From TrEMBL:
Source organism per UniProt: Streptomyces lavendofoliae
Protein name (Swiss-Prot/TrEMBL): Polynucleotide kinase PNKP phosphatase domain-containing protein
InterPro entries xrefs: HAD-like_sf, HAD_PNKP, HAD_sf
Residues in Polynucleotide kinase PNKP phosphatase domain copies: 10-141
Domain of life: Bacteria
Gene3D superfamilies: HAD superfamily/HAD-like
Pfam families: HAD_PNKP
């Protein structure tokens, strides 16, 4: 099997690979402090369960990272992935002005990816993203190993920010 024919394992970041709990208070205030929320992302501790799953998947699959973080966070995000020793792989981020729900933007990327390769699995903590991906026929692993605040869930769905 050549590298380009290997299936893809697609991993979310926040509350799947990284523990974003310390940043969630920035979303619980009004107005939400998005700049502080994203600025604190490099200090996220890794989530052992997600990291282990990613490393294991890399044995059979090429890893792809799919996040709702905006493009302006790319440098910090790439540095965080490298600091955790996670496998190299393309990083798909939302455009800085894209406010569509994560369930829409992520499914769009999954469809593009699966046009040329098998997507073996999507690992994500957002239940609405997982539901949409399952309805579209993708195998989903629901990352339920981190606590998520109601504010973060609302931001993912209603504000299209992460």
């Amino acid at each position: 099997m050549t590298r380009n024919s290997r299936p893809l394992a697609v991993f979310d970041l926040d509350n799947t690979l990284s523990d974003a709990r310390h940043r969630q208070p920035f979303l619980e205030r009004r107005p939400r402090d998005w700049a502080a929320f994203f600025a604190a992302a490099p200090q996220d501790p890794p989530l052992a369960r997600g990291v282990e799953m990613c490393m294991e998947a890399a044995g059979e699959c090429d890893v792809v990272y799919l996040t709702g973080r905006p493009e302006r966070c790319r440098r910090d995000t790439v540095a965080w992935l490298a600091a955790q020793g996670l496998p190299d792989g393309p990083l798909h981020m939302r455009g800085d002005q894209d406010r569509r729900p994560a369930r829409v933007t992520k499914l769009e990327v999954l469809r593009r990816l699966s046009a040329g390769r098998e997507v073996r699995m999507l690992v994500d903590d957002d239940e609405l993203v997982c539901d949409a991906a399952e309805r579209a026929g993708y195998r989903v692993v629901r990352a339920r190993w981190a606590e998520s605040s109601d504010a973060l869930l609302e931001a993912q769905e209603r504000e299209g920010r992460t």
